[in-house]
């Protein structure tokens, strides 16, 4: 579902009241309250304590309904699936951060190596490295 977000908002901005969220998700408002109590979906709250659902919450509610009705997963299983998907998302974000950090470190190392190579004097005379074999025969003392 595409939704034109007002300026300064995105899919995580909570602005749907529970009745609108229920309509958008195809669920009853009491079901949304139950899912909130179980920790399946955690909507934002107003200063007065009213629930406000974001577009991401609506998508999640639809996924909970799909898993429950089409896949036959119980609510505890759905909660675990959601937790694991959130963990995977966090790990992917961390992996992207570390990959970017590693690329920056490699670029800095290559720059430092190039800088060292550029600073080497080119007027030095190369020294030949030769190998010689010396045989030592100690004099025997009698």
Automatic annotation (TrEMBL):
<keyword id="KW-0238">DNA-binding</keyword>
<dbReference type="InterPro" id="IPR009061">
    <property type="entry name" value="DNA-bd_dom_put_sf"/>
</dbReference>
<protein>
    <submittedName>
        <fullName>MerR family transcriptional regulator/heat shock protein HspR</fullName>
    </submittedName>
</protein>
<dbReference type="GO" id="GO:0003700">
    <property type="term" value="F:DNA-binding transcription factor activity"/>
</dbReference>
<dbReference type="InterPro" id="IPR047057">
    <property type="entry name" value="MerR_fam"/>
</dbReference>
<keyword id="KW-0175">Coiled coil</keyword>
<dbReference type="GO" id="GO:0003677">
    <property type="term" value="F:DNA binding"/>
</dbReference>
<keyword id="KW-0346">Stress response</keyword>
<feature type="domain" description="HTH merR-type">
    <location>
        <begin position="15"/>
        <end position="84"/>
    </location>
</feature>
<dbReference type="Pfam" id="PF13411">
    <property type="entry name" value="MerR_1"/>
</dbReference>
<dbReference type="InterPro" id="IPR000551">
    <property type="entry name" value="MerR-type_HTH_dom"/>
</dbReference>
<feature type="coiled-coil region">
    <location>
        <begin position="81"/>
        <end position="115"/>
    </location>
</feature>
